[in-house]
Amino acid sequence: GENVEQHPSTLSVQEGDSAVIKCTYSDSASNYFPWYKQELGKRPQLIIDIRSNVGEKKDQRIAVTLNKTAKHFSLHITETQPEDSAVYFCAARDNYGQNFVFGPGTRLSVLP
Amino acid sequence: DAGVIQSPRHEVTEMGQEVTLRCKPISGHNSLFWYRQTMMRGLELLIYFNNNVPIDDSGMPEDRFSAKMPNASFSTLKIQPSEPRDSAVYFCASSLGQGEYEQYFGPGTRLTVT
After folding, report:
1. What are phi and psi for residue A50, nearest 5 degrees?
2. Cβ contact A22:A72 at 8 Å
3. N or C, which end of chain A has less CB nearby within 10 Å?
4. Residues forming beta bridges with residue A51, ordered by sequence position
5. What is the per-residue DSSP string for B33-50?
6. A46 neighbourhood in chain B, CB within 8 Å
7. How close, in Å, is residue B15 to chain A by CA atoms?
8. Average model confidence (pLDDT) for chain A?
9. Nearest C-alpha of chain A: how many angstroms from B52?
10. Phi, psi dihedral angles at A110 (to 5 degrees)
């Protein structure tokens, strides 16, 4: 089955700097890669996703890139703000399974 | 829509007791997922339903866990008997269908088994 790894497990950046979180997946059949943000004590919420026919997608300060050959994808947050502090989960879904496999999460702290 | 509704929000019970967690998905959503979140194991999928039918329960840890979806607007996750290692936050999520649809998570049930 699918296995998703995520790095780093924790990340601290100064406000205004950029943050990058990387994920790798094992199943080459995976074709959909969402990113979820979970604030402390709250539920995970989708912030951006990318499909395998696209190499990059942007939404304001957030972008995701996908390298299918290397089987990795990354989340990029620019001009970080304190409200970006949260745990971020990547996930992968393949054509055959109907569920997501989540990475272990990255705890991002944006320092004022 | 009120979003995915879960009850109770917090549950404290003694080892050996039966625990029932409840979920109401977003109206019109055909897929429902139960997750367990712990510090050690992260976010794990336990089971998911499509059109009220269980599709994959391979994540259910053992026979003490069972889940039902008697209709499109209600699902339960039952643990009997409960054990301290079941302590976790249990999330229910729903989506429009199987595939590349956003999963909307409920607020979660924090379960503590003493």
Report:
1. -145, 145
2. yes
3. C
4. A32
5. EEEEEETTTEEEEEEEEE
6. 102-103
7. 25
8. 93
9. 15
10. -105, 115
